[in-house]
Amino acid sequence: VAPGVTILPVKIGTAAGANDADVIAGINYIMMLKKAGVNIVAINASYISTSIPSSGVLTAISNAGNAGMLYVAAAGNAGLNLDSLIPTSSLGGLSSLLSKLPGWSSSLPSSFLPSNLMFVAATDDQDKLAGFSDYGAKTVAVGAPGVDMTLAIPGGIYAPLSGTSFAAPIVSAIAGLLKSVKPTATMAQIQAAILNSGDLDP
Question: Fewest CB atoms less than 10 Å from the CB: which of 37, 91, 138, 161?
Fold first, then answer.
């Protein structure tokens, strides 16, 4: 997708998933590198999480945006409408429920989802939403190929795997490619280019 663009692997959590502390530590490490002059355009977030993000995670993602980095996240593979799970502007009636979650804090950003956060759904070889992919008109920004992706597997073999974790890196790579073509482009300009240039699929 983006020849010549360098990938910087940052390992967090385990194969079972990453908790909030892992995610925040990973973002903070990337922030440190960015401040040191490393040209980081986007953070690809293809990790397993089974909980609503804490205010600490949302703040870390927002901080990455303030430093000029997109946060491109796999939408998830449960076939859920994320609009029904994640409020986009205010907590509304969820505040009492969320306050009971471990690590949750009432100190939220003004918008529940940071503006640099882009959830990515998986599409199939017909450019349709994959049956397993989470979706959401208000929460999921774009879709990208995520079905039967040929991937290198430990042991020197290749196999077709599916998931939104394979769709998100394509969008991250597009962000890197756009920045390589136009180095002066801002994060907002790159994000707008991605959002405005995709095929509209009802």
Answer: 37
Q: What is the C-alpha to C-alpha distance for residues 195 and 47, in angstroms, rounded to an integer? A: 23
pLDDT in tens, 86-103: 654 444 444 444 444 434
Q: Are 114 and 60 in contact (CB under 8 A)?
A: no
- pTM value? 0.85
d(CA 3, CA 64): 24
Proportion of the chain in helix, strand, coil states, percent, rounded to 5: 35, 20, 50
Q: Tell me 201's DSSP state.
A: -
End-to-end CA distance of the chain: 25
Question: Is-contact 55 82, C-beta < 8 A?
Answer: no
